[in-house]
Amino acid sequence: MSYIDKSLGEGETVIVRARFHWLYDVAVWGSILVPGLLLLTLLARAQQGPVPFASDDPVTWATALVAVLFIACVCNSLVMIVRKWTTEVGVTSHRFVEKYGVFTLRSNEIAVPNIEGVRVNQGVLGRIFNYGTVRIEGTGDDSVLTPVIADPIAFVRAIQTAKEHMAQRPIPTQPSV
Fold first, then answer.
1. Fewer CB near the terminus (10 Å): N or C of the chain?
2. What pLDDT score does 53 carry?
3. Cβ distance 32 to 73 under 8 Å?
4. Averaged over 6-27, what is the pLDDT?
5. Would the pTM count as exceeding 0.85?
6. How many CB atoms lie within 10 A of CB 170?
7. Structural element, H or E, at residue 149
8. Residue 118, SS3 per DSSP
9. Cα–Cα distance measured from residue 98 to residue 5, given in angstroms and rounded to the nearest whole number
């Protein structure tokens, strides 16, 4: 069960969950496949020489460098995959919630009535492929920047919907004594 689902209060519902854009997955797999294919090509080429993997052969040195690059890219990809699996961003009927972390849990929550401003940041490619970041500004110094998410405009629309629902909800009155 997700953190957002576990933390729902009575009468609170999830309006929207942000998701990572598909280009994030392309970046993860591309950073493994491109150096991996280059490494396989160089390995095949280094074995074809008169003395396979000779220390004076520039192809051998290029293979070693690409192997180091490949290991670094695999490590970076693992970090990106873990970040994607452990990050939750959503809007409920009462609050904005962002949670991330594997062994430790870190969360940012801003009550919907306390959200003063929402800003979308999309570059040229973000506009074309419909991804970007959203900065939610709360009362005081509170401010949360989401990771790059798909369809940030719809996410902002969901925040506005939650604000409208909170404004229409009757305020319970305390019985007088």
1. C
2. 72
3. yes
4. 92
5. no
6. 5
7. strand 149-150
8. strand
9. 12
Q: Where are the alpha helices (DSSP H) in 7-151?
A: 22-47, 58-86, 124-129
Q: Using one digit for the tens of pLDDT, what is the confidence trace for 45-88?
A: 878 877 777 777 788 888 899 999 999 999 999 999 999 999 99
Q: Are 88 and 3 in contact (CB under 8 A)?
A: yes
Which residues neighbour 18 within 8 Å (Cβ) at sequence distance 6 or greater? 89, 90, 134, 146, 149, 150, 155
**Residue 169 neighbours by CB distance under 10 Å:** 11
Give the tokens for residue 144.
Answer: 């949360």
Measured CA angle at 90 (ends 144, 73), to 5 deg:
75
Segment holding 98, helix H or strand E: strand 95-100
SS3 content of the chain, % helix, strand, coil (to 5): 50, 25, 30
As a whole number, mean pLDDT of residues 11-22 equals 92
Alpha carbon separation from 95 to 52, 114, 141 (Å, rounded): 62, 9, 17
